[in-house]
Amino acid sequence: MTKLNAQMEDAVQQLMRHPSVSNVTVQEKPGGGVVVTADFDTNLPSTWRAQGASPTGVRPVETVEFEFPSDYPLRAPVPTLRPDFNRTLPHINPHRKGDRVPPCTIFGGTLEVLHSEGVYRLYDQVAVWLENAAENKLIDNGPGWEPMRRDSCADFLEVDDDEVAKVLTPGNAKLYRIHITWPDDSAVSFGWGKRTGPSTLTPSELAKATAVVRVQEWNVVGSFFVVCCPEANGAEGPKVVDQYQPDSVTNYSDLKLLADQVGCGQALARFAANLDAVSRSVSSKQSVPIYLALAVRRPTHLIGLKSDYELLTYRVDIRPQQGAVLTDDAPARPVLLTTPLSPALLRQASGIETEQVRIELGLVGCGSLGSKVATHVARAGYAPKVLVDNDGFLPHNAARHALFPSQFRRVGNKAKQLAGELGEFFEGRKPTVFDRSIRLLPFEDKKFNAFFSNENAALLNTTGSHSVRYFLNDAPFRARVMEACLLNLGSAAVMTLEGAGRNPSTTDLMAHTFERLRENGLLQRPVTGHEGTVGVGVGCNSVTLPMTDGNISLVAAGVGQTALRLFEDGLPELGCASIAKIGSDKMSVEWLHDAVGRTHIAGVADSNAWSVRVLDAAHRKMCADVAAHPRVETGGVVVGRVSATLREITIVDVLDAPPDSKRAPNAFTLGVAGLSERIDAYDKSGQGVLWCLGTWHSHLQAFGPSSTDVATANKLKGSIAGAVVLLIHRPDGYSALVRDEF
């Protein structure tokens, strides 16, 4: 009795317990491991059982061998069937002709299933596979023809199957120029860059193809991809090959046999003769790979493709010489065809089903956050249109930038170098770059006008700069501004997007997020001096904020996902404001989202120098208060922020009137009960970013400030640092009085 380790003993016991299994035997393999043999009842109907086999050749009892490696369960057991099992059935793995037949019983990796669901599942799948094989139900061609298995290929070619299938010439070989890279040991190879080649090989073309260039440890050659087209079968065209078959090609002799079977023998022979003829005039010191493909016509299109031609491709190494170059014993290895990089492929891999692109995206700021968002978007198949950044790279940028040191350790602008890398996703089509300050960008220039005049474009500002934000707020373009930045040394972040017609504006939305941050205890005083900075060079500007690449990436992922949603769904009517809270574990992130309505502009009664902006949240609260007191004036306290530089007041919210306030049809008197304490508490939580700005009250009629209002405003002058506002809610909008210290 063969001695088994505990894991193998358990696997054998589970096999014995399967209801379809009998006659289990175990035999030790030379060199380690065991072969476990079991008879499987295939559950044939009585008629087929009496005949001794199903129409597909499956017998009532099939003996299956499970080869367990010596390091099981680090590797999974491999099931095989008798050598004369029907090889034309689908879902059979590649193998040498005459060997035992290996069925493909598991979708995905057998080892993964072994460790996720156990070895019993592998046995159960073999039983199901045999029953389906008997009834010819291993595959449903409704979705298309399933191509030949290419699970363990070491050679790859980037090519568009549908494109190649469009230009097949019956009975001839079509040559394409490609590049192939492979290491010295020839263990793997990769081909790419298909271009139309000569109709036949010439000595000069073959000489070019065998001229090897050394790039580090890799060999690079300008080789050939040869597509052998099937012969025409009268008016019906090339014959249809409607039987599945496993890949049993191991050398050129096998390849010729397969070519004859699928109707491509003539084309392959013509190419071989052409190669032999020209090779006499070419000398080569080493063998180089070429890729040979047989274009096999199937009864329906291949799964995931439009074409009904399957390109069975093999790598064969050649070396020009006198006599036959492609000898029968020359190894032939299967090549996996991979779809070329394209926006469609990237979207498919990202789970994006639509091909429609509803917005254009540009970026101001190509640093750590901006570069990551741009990369997230590009990897999903969407190309940023415009990049703006006037900075170059410094060593500390390597800590968090999407690019790597080898890509920017040279003199160069961030936007230009990021654009170069992004272009690789889109066949060299780079975003338009402006490598100076955004304040100098000529919006009417033809290079930029199409983007900035597009109301379906979003310009993402990741600079975190107040001055850039205010510039973009007033800049004369139709594209909406989106902003994202990290706050509080990476423990919080904000993201905003302007509404239709750029209302609410980017500064409005930032003020809104400050209020949301305050409500959630995340608002902090701005960092000043040297607090929270890291020196990275010599000079006042040589500082950066200390946070990890992962910290940046937590936020960049959310911003990138938002951008992708905009590409799919388009820009919303309302503005958007979001805040992110980074968990104390430095791993988790929680986003809170607000849809923000239009901002209302108050007419400032006796001054053209100040502007007063009433944000949506404050407007809705005042409207609700007015609706609750329709026959009397009502009011309260307004809070927000003041930009003395721009002489702009932004009202973000209102505080309810104290309970001792008096409301009358022609007057509102603000009470004092608990008011000072509430204002002090708000100002404290506002962290010097938000504070009490003044008061508001309603008028029942559409008229502006009364003489009483003017007198009240004059009394308030100087009571609040910077400026104080008296806001009037009217049936037709807002009026305001502003008194400042200047």
Please explain how this structure is put together.
The protein has 742 residues and is an alpha/beta fold. It has four domains: 6-134, Ubiquitin Conjugating Enzyme; 155-340, no CATH class; 347-527 and 541-595, 3-Layer(aba) Sandwich (Rossmann fold); 599-740, Cytidine Deaminase, domain 2, CATH 3.40.140. The chain is built from 19 helices and 31 strands. Strands 15-14-13-16-17-18-21-22 form an eight-stranded mixed sheet, sandwiched between helices. Strands 5-7-6-9-10-11-12 form a seven-stranded mixed β-barrel. α14 links the parallel β16 (457-461) and β17. α3 (110-117) packs across α4 (119-134). The protein is elongated. The N and C termini lie far apart (102 Å).
